[in-house]
Automatic annotation (TrEMBL):
Keywords: Chaperone. One of its GO terms (molecular function) is protein folding chaperone. The keyword Glycoprotein does not apply. This is Probable 26S proteasome regulatory subunit p27. SUPFAM superfamilies: PDZ domain-like (SSF50156). The keyword Chaperone applies. GO terms for cellular component: cytosol; nucleus. It holds the Pfam family Nas2_N. It comes from Wickerhamomyces anomalus (strain ATCC 58044 / CBS 1984 / NCYC 433 / NRRL Y-366-8). InterPro entries: Nas2_N, PDZ, PDZ_sf, PSMD9.
Length: 203
């Protein structure tokens, strides 16, 4: 999927009527949005750009190696869909809380999103990340309570790491076609620098 014209955004329900949908309908819309986001990120990947890649040369001209207008349109659609996804997830959470508030008040929605928001570009041998089984090119889907909707340009990963030193954090990564559940324990008790022993970038 190389261009925006290959991506069709057709939801089974209008996002503006989200409050009127039941749990099953909301779950379907969530799945549809995730699918469309994956397609849009695939367009960016095929064009070898990310959400933050510069589209203007150092001398102020549009890049000639990509369709700048199309990439900008893809980014706009991704931002809109991310916002829509947040709305749907919040609605799902409210529905679930309402359903179980009398019997299971502590029940929380599993924000098991399939959309990666960060990628591992470096793993230091013997560091916490290496010991957790994390590898270069793993794509992070869930990091503790952090996902594609709330990572805040990865700043929230730093916060959760600092608040959980020497405590296990559950993470979910995509490795090729595999979805893996791992556990990392941030610590300074190792020869290298930092608490994770890996480098993570936003995608």
């Amino acid at each position: 999927m190389n261009s925006l014209k290959d991506v069709e955004y057709n939801l089974s329900h209008d996002i503006n009527t989200i409050k009127d949908l039941n749990y099953q309908q909301l779950a379907l819309v969530k799945s549809e949005i995730e699918s469309e986001l994956n397609k849009l990120f695939e367009v960016l990947q095929k064009n070898k750009v990310s959400m933050d890649s510069a589209l203007i040369t150092h001398d102020g001209f549009p890049r000639s190696d990509v369709n700048v207008i199309e990439i900008r349109n893809v980014r706009v659609k991704i931002i809109k869909l991310r916002n829509d996804l947040t709305i749907v997830i919040n609605a799902l959470s409210e529905k679930l809380h309402s359903q179980f508030q009398n019997t299971e008040p502590e029940k929380k929605i599993d924000s098991d999103l399939l959309i990666p928001f960060a990628k591992v570009t470096e793993v230091v041998d013997s560091g916490p990340a290496a010991q957790a089984g994390i590898r270069v090119d793993d794509k992070i889907v869930i990091f503790g309570t952090i996902n594609v909707t709330n990572h805040n340009n990865l700043q929230n990963i730093g916060l959760i790491v600092k608040n959980n030193v020497n405590k296990p954090i559950e993470i979910k990564v995509l490795r090729g076609s595999q979805k893996l559940h791992l556990e990392i324990k941030p610590t300074s008790d190792w020869p290298g620098n930092g608490l994770l022993g890996c480098r993570i970038i936003q995608i």
